[in-house]
Each structure stands twice: as C-alpha cells, then as structure tokens.
Input
Amino acid sequence: MPIELISLITGNVSGFIFKLIASQTEAAQRMAEANLKTQEAADASADKAAKRGGDSGSWVRRFIVIMVLTGVIIFPFYLAVTGGAVTIEENSPKGLLSWLGMSGKEMITVSSSYLILPEIRSSLLAIVGFYFGSSVVNNRK
Output
C-alpha cells in the first residue's frame, strides 16, 4: 500500500473522529442549555406558587401534616389501647400461576391493630422530605 494512500485514509479517519467528538460535545452543550431552561421554568413556577399560596396555603399544609401525623402516631396508639379491629381485603394467589400473580381468590382478614396504608407512608415521606429538605436548602444559603 503506498504511503499516500495510508496518509489519505488516516487523515479521513482522524477527521471523522474529531468531527464526531465535536458533534457530541455540541449535543451535550445543547442538552445542558435545555436543562438550564427547564430548571429556570420550574423555579419560576415554584416562586409563583409560593407567592400564590399565602396564609391559607400554609394552613392547608399544616392541616394535612396534622392529619397524616395523627394517622401515623395517634391512631395506632388509640387502637392499641382500645383494641379496635381493622378489616383488610386482599388477593391471595394460589397454585402454579401464583408465582406470576395470575390467579387467586379474595381474602378478608380482620386485624386487631391499625393498618398503615402505603398512601400514608408516602405522605409521611413527602412531609419529611418537604420540611427537612427545605431546611437543608435554607442552611446552604
């Protein structure tokens, strides 16, 4: 193979590689700019929501927090003292298809305790994240 041909091929390959690297860098830069614009829009929306909430919004949030904490702290204690019962309806898969969750029958279980639903757990996590997350942001400023 002549040296001119090798030089031509290596020049073309290196040009292609550098053009590819440049286009990937440009795409990453455009993606970062788009992410910044999205974040600015989200911040503006959050600022508008904070201004719109006012005192009534803070009272609604306080009421929701009190209700969730009542469901997590006070109701289990109350039912433990009084001995109340909770009825739970669930599906219980049976047989070979139970591994795939394709068959089963409905069961009703009576529990002499308090049932904390996944919705209450996720609400509690949201409250903790909101209050502790905002305190972390306030400490960074």
